[in-house]
Amino acid sequence: TGKYSVYTTYQGCKIMFHVSTLIHFTPGDPQQVERKRHTGNDIVLLIFRQGENTPFDPSLIRSHFNHVFIIVTPVGDNKYMVAVTCKDGVPYFGPQLLWPPTFEFPNPLDPNDMRFRSFLLSKMINGQNASLLYAPDFIFKFRQTRKLQLTNILGSIPSSQLEHNRKS
Length: 168
Hints:
Blueprint: E1 6-10, E2 13-17, H1 33-39, E3 44-48, E4 68-76, E5 79-86, E6 102-104, H2 115-134, H3 136-156, H4 159-167
Helix pairs in contact: 2-3
């Protein structure tokens, strides 16, 4: 629904970023439904916060899917502070934040230093996995999906084949 997309791969995972400012803006739509349709269905939100005095409150974002919020704030030339907050039910996931939680990117001493990128992508992937596997909102959905899939699989096997397997 836009002209541009931001995409990368990391350790075999394909990652698509829904950048809200790149998603089509619809004049006259105060709800901006097109933008919400994408970001509201993401489990992990990477939020770039400009200005240290601008607080981020995840409760202002209403979505059943958004569970992990990774907030990146510039704190100087090429320096960024990272904070992570999650909805209830999401267990701890790595990698662990440094203390202080600041990163320098690009590193003036080594422009090929990809630690910040690696940290963010690992944190996002692990946050999504932790949410999908343990958050109550997703556990029920997965159980229902598995039950339906097993019912469909069993329904596709002829009953004579099931009887034969039981006797063996």
